[in-house]
Every structure is written in C-alpha cells, then in structure tokens.
Amino acid sequence: MTEFTRLVDLASRRLGGSVVAANDELFAERENLIKPEDPSHSVYTFGHKGQVYDGWETRRRREPGHDWAIVRLGLPGVVHGVVVDTAFFTGNYPPEISVEGAAVDGHPSPAELSDADWFELVARSGVKGDSRNPFDVIDTAADRYVTHVRLNIFPDGGVARLRVHGEPVADPRFLSAGAVDLAALENGGDVVGCSNMFYSSPRNLISPGRAAVMGEGWETARRRDDANDYVEVRLAGPGSVRLAELDTSHFVGNAPGWASLRGRVPGSSEWVELLPRQRLQPDTRHRFRLPGGPEVELVRLDVYPDGGMARLRLYGDMSAHGRAGLAARWFDRLPPAFALRVLAEEAGLDRAAAATLVAARPLAGSAEVPAEVRALAGA
Q1: DSSP 23
Q2: What local confidence, expressed as pLDDT, does residue 169 receive?
C-alpha cells in the first residue's frame, strides 16, 4: 500500500463523514462506504434484494451513464490519495472508477452539491475486484482544499469502502471562538427541560465524545400537531456563546428540518436569539458562528417539527462570574485534605490560611468568591 494511507481518512464516519447522496443503492446502502471498520462478508445471507453486502451496490445498468455517490468529508482538507476497496465484490464490482472533489461553504443539500464546482482528483481508472485499489491524487489537485468528494463508478456495481486519505485543514473562521463547551455534561452543563424523550434521553446531546450510532443521540416521537420539540440546557456557567454545533450524525431519515437557539439572560426571564431558525441537513455536523452577544445561563434548542440529534455543542467564553461559580462549586465538594493541597500547590497559601478558607465553605453563591478559589478556574 502506498505512503498516503498513513494519513488520516478524512471521510471516515468516526470523524463525522457522511454519504449525503447516491443516484442508486438498490442492493446495498451507500452509508457502508465510510464505515471505519474493514468490510466483512457472510456467505448465503440473502435478503429480499439478494445477497447482503457490507458495501454500496447499485442495480445492473440497462441504459447509458454511470452511478455515483457523494461523500461529505468529516474533516475537510487536502486529499493525497484514495483507496477504492472492492472487498468481496467479485462478479459485481465496477470495472472503472473516478473521483472528483469540491470545496463548498456551509451545509449544502444534495441538489445544491450537483451545481458545485467539481474538479478531478483521480482520473478514470481501472479497478480489480475483491481488492484494495489505491490511487494517488493527480498533480493539479495536490494542494486543493476539499470538503466533498464524488465517487463515480463505470457503469455500475459494488464498492465496499472508500478511504480518502489526506491532511485536515481547519477553517480559521471557527478557531476564533472560545474553546470551552459551555453545554458539556463533563463541564457541568445539564438538561433541565425537554418536550419529548420518547426514543432516547436528551442528556445524550451533551455527553462526551461523538455518537457512534443513532441510539446515542436524542430522538423524539413523530409529531402530529402544529407545535415543535425542544431541549433546555443549563450551561456550566454563564457565558457568551460564539460557536454552536448541531450534529445530526446517523439521523438520516429522521433529522429535524430546522433548528434555532435562544438564551436566557442571568437573573431575568428575558430570552435572546442566539441562532435564528436554520435549515438542517440529515447526518451532518452543522457549525454556526454566533455574534456572541449578551451573557446567558440557559440555552433552548428548538427543533422543527421533531426528530433526532446526536450532539449539541455550545462553545464560548465563560464570564469571570461564571468561572468563579464553577470553581466554587468544585472547591466546595473537595475532601478537606484535597482542598488544602490544592490551595497550597495552586494558590501558594500556607497551611493556616488554607485551613481558614476550607473552613469557610460553602463558597458557591457567596457575594464574593475568594481570589485564590477564582484563580482555580482562571477567573
């Protein structure tokens, strides 16, 4: 295998990749193309459409043309090489393939992607059946930024996996946002309200890591009225939200059509708009830059009209007051010996001063959290 396979697979489902469209998937579904695990096969496992394959397979083409599938990369970047794996496809693999790339901003629909400026990554080339077929990217595309790739197969057939190896290139517009996920369960955020949790818990939305399957997200029952579903999240501490991630990964036919975000200002009943109603795509990590605006302590996610979402991330800057409260809540719950050690090692207090501060607990909710405790959270 060539050197480029040591690079990250930018299309992997594990990194947020998604097969957003295919012109045909009659025998085997397109989503199999980007599974992170190697393809598998069991003989004589027939469904109502024939032998079950761990890959993408189209019907036998009886008219001119060719079949294709479009993959949105989990990590956009520069593609160095592609592997078209036809494992276990022996009499039904495509004789030839080609791969194109595109760089598209935002969250385009499949119809919008058809009008993208596609350019060649791998020229039309022959492939072997039941094999890993590696291809270096052509020279003219060697340094181009890619967000989506289109695999073309000539004329039809089956492909087990598509690996798109390269180097991730971060969009700098998103790097200016605060690094703290104010909603994260592990940072102290929690769900305090929810309209519906028929299939799974809304707390999954703010759980660590990425959802591996649909069941690790939040999903509502199907609505039969004119209302919409929502979740309310108490932030880890009051702060200004600058970047929101609404992840519908794995929700292919049951993602919400739209979503919006509002925040409640601390100490009041006032709600402010953080993200106006936005169209969502299925099986997609949506990232939205927000203007920041006022400090909020509670965020409400409205989905229209219903459906499922894998994760909700709300990155931003926690206020000094919020950080102080976070530090106090943590410090109040430490065993005395632990608290004394923290004050000595982190704040440089002598034993007597540290003991006085430990004895003064609880500090959460006090008018002024001591500077030595605020410093534990950078406040």
Answers
A1: S
A2: 86
